[in-house]
Design a protein that fits this description.
By secondary structure, the protein is of the alpha/beta class. It has 9 helices and 7 strands, in the order αααβαβαββαβαααββ. Bound molecules: S-adenosylmethionine (SAM).
Length: 235
């Protein structure tokens, strides 16, 4: 599958489940996703009036948390599936919130060099192929010392979880997702992307190779998800 076919497929999946996305997220993670995103934004570094980019922002749950925590900042919420952004719009229209919704591809960011304080990406990086192009763009737009904060599913390789987790991921989750969203492919696609994604230590190495420094990462909920943080080197 070439680059643009992949993009069309991903945007098609997310357009078809946009209406159910929040419900499915909360339901299938037993509400844990809310806590995971709150943990993610603890690592964001920005000044009071800074700019944070929420990449692959989807229905804006991370953007909302960012604005709640730092009411003065500007949030650039960027995603290439418009129905996802539209679905989330109401969540961020509280008093004074400064949010800019942008339909764009994470591999070609429409922002100038060194203009962003921090970038968040929750459950998005595994959808972007090739990831290197996104890293390159993120480094370009970040200010020196700016952070990339990633929240993503683990690979379920920890022995204690492997059996249950893989069964849940490959059987239960696609079934529930299919019944509710009526999209045959979307949740099998999710399981496939999680399985094909690097383990936490490999992802950290990948970030290092892409040029990030001071990388750290840790699991949440026994490794169901991981947070990875890296910094753009100072000039
Ligand atoms: C699983 S959702 C995550 C949404 C949100 N960040 C959250 O925490 O729920 C993944 C999102 O990534 C977006 N996406 C996938 N590939 C992308 C790309 N190349 N550029 C921008 N957005 C992309 C999809 O449209 C989708 O909204």
């Amino acid at each position: 599958m070439n680059r643009s076919q992949h993009s069309k497929l991903v945007a098609g999946y997310f357009s078809s489940i946009a209406g159910w996305y929040d419900f499915l997220n909360h339901f299938l993670s037993f509400g844990q996703d809310i806590y995971w995103r709150k943990r993610l934004i603890r690592h964001v570094r920005t000044s009071d009036k800074g700019i944070v980019m929420d990449l692959a922002a989807g229905t804006l749950d991370v953007s909302k948390e960012l604005l709640k925590k730092n009411p003065e900042i500007k949030v650039l919420a960027l995603d290439y599936t418009l129905p996802m952004l539209v679905r989330g719009k109401d969540k961020v229209e509280f008093a004074g919130s400064k949010i800019f919704l942008t339909q764009a591809d994470g591999r070609t960011l429409p922002m100038p060099d060194k203009s962003i304080d921090s970038v968040t990406i929750a459950f998005g990086i595994r959808n972007i192929v090739p990831r290197d192009e996104a890293y390159k763009e993120i480094i370009r737009v970040l200010k020196p010392g700016g952070r990339l904060c990633i929240l993503e599913f683990g690979t379920g390789k920890r022995r204690i979880w492997r059996g249950v987790y893989n069964f849940y991921l490959t059987k239960i989750l696609p079934l529930i997702g299919r019944l509710i969203s009526r999209d045959k492919g979307a949740y099998s696609y999710l399981a496939d992307t999680i399985k094909g994604f690097p383990a936490s230590d490999e992802l950290a190495l990948e970030m290092k190779r892409a040029g990030f420094s001071r990388i750290f990462y840790y699991p949440l909920s026994s490794g169901i998800v991981y947070i990875h943080v890296g910094e753009k080197k100072q000039d």
